[in-house]
Amino acid sequence: xxxxxxxxxxxxxxxxxxxxxxxxxxxxxxxxxxxxxxxxxxxxxxxxxxxxxxxxxxxxxxxxxxxxxxxxxxxxxxxxxxxxxxxxxxxxxxxxxxxxxxxxxxxxxxxxxxxxxxxxxxxxxxxxxxxxxxxxxxxxxxxxxxxxxxxxxxxxxxxxxxxxxxxxxxxxxxxxxxxxxxxxxxxxxxxxxxxxxxxxxxxxxxxxx
Length: 209
Known about the structure:
Blueprint: H1 7-13, E1 17-24, E2 29-34, H2 38-46, H3 54-61, E3 64-67, H4 79-84, E4 90-97, E5 112-119, H5 126-142, H6 151-161, H7 166-173, H8 177-190, H9 196-205
Antiparallel strand pairs: 1-2, 1-5, 3-4, 4-5
């Protein structure tokens, strides 16, 4: 996949851990990197912190970047204090999204990506925060949904996603099986997918079908 995140750089910038979710879909992100300490992940999950997490609440409501220390007033459950017990002492959050109807991306509905990064020793320097924001932005841009898929290609993927066989799709659309294969192949290339199944999964994740 193009423009992969440099995980070694992230380990240097955020040695205590990081979590990046790129282009959130209806349920899951298109890509996710979670290197938070396993003990914290288990603690966080077991207590169902997601709905009360001040970092996530900020990330879904705002864009830009903020230090965790600026979110303490919005943390009535003391989640950030508990994170310190797992070495997540200092942190920064980054959130960005496409603007609806953004001419640069062609995306009709805003798609959000965010990252949360931690250190145990000190606050992040402004230059480090800027680089972390760039990393999230670069991956967000790399996973921009294609805008050149035709309606015929999208329709073929919709029907295949719904479980129809190639011959059934061809019959319903009044074309040959060869034409359907070509549409799926073209969609696969435009979506930078490994195969048609992967292409359909990516198109679904992007909300294209």
